Structures are given as C-alpha cells and as structure tokens.
Amino acid sequence: MSQTLPLSQLAIGQAATVESFINQLPSFQQVCQNLGIKPGSSVEILRKAPGKGPLQIKVLGTLYSMRESDAQGIRVSL
C-alpha cells in the first residue's frame, strides 16, 4: 500500500507519482497539466529554499520552480 502526502513534504532527492490536486483552482491545474504535472506523472524534488521558499522539481526531464504553498495542494504517492 502506497503512502499519499503533499508534494511539499517530499525530501530532497525523493521521487513520487502525482495522484491528485486538492483545493487548487482549475487554472492552476491546467497550467500544471500543460507542464506535465498531472496524475500518473513522476515528480522529483531537487532543491528546497529555506523556510517557505520555492521548491525545484523535475518532471519529464524538465526543471521547474514551484511555491511551497502550491506544492501543498498536489497529492503524491510514494
């Protein structure tokens, strides 16, 4: 059985599979899906800024920065 948690809680270097979006605007979900961040895709945390700063994530070989608050609304499974 896989564990489900917010993307923001992954450790640096940890990869997971996107499961769903929680309490996110449809426009944000559409932007994520256009970037390849959608249910079933693999995402890896590469870096975390101190405090509540942005995360650097890798999806489909491309690097993105995402606010920690946005990453809280993306559920992933390990």
Briefly say what this structure is:
This protein has 78 residues and is an alpha+beta fold.
Characterization of this structure:
There is one protein chain. By secondary structure, the chain is of the alpha+beta class. Helix content is 18%, strand content 40%. It has one domain (4-77): Ferrous iron transport protein A (FeoA) (SH3 type barrels), CATH 2.30.30.90. It has a six-stranded antiparallel beta sheet. The longest helix has 10 residues, at 26-35.
| CATH architectural grouping | Roll
Termini gap: 9 Å
Residue-averaged pLDDT: 92
CATH superfamily: Ferrous iron transport protein A (FeoA)
Number of separate structural domains:
1
Query: How does the helix and strand content classify structurally?
Result: alpha+beta
**What is the CATH T-level topology?**
SH3 type barrels
The succession of helices and strands, N to C, reads EEHEEEHE
Helix content percent band = 10-25%
Largest sheet: 6 strands, antiparallel
* DSSP summary, beta strand count: 6
The radius of gyration computed from the alpha-carbon positions, rounded to a whole number of angstroms, is 11 Å
CATH classification, class level: Mainly Beta
Q: Give me the number of helical elements.
A: 2
Task: Pick out its properties.
78 residues, alpha+beta, SH3 type barrels, six-stranded antiparallel β-sheet, 2 helices, 18% helix
Tell me the layout of helices and strands:
Elements: E1 4-6, E2 15-21, H1 26-35, E3 42-48, E4 55-59, E5 62-66, H2 68-71, E6 74-77
Antiparallel strand pairs: 1-6, 2-3, 2-6, 3-4, 4-5
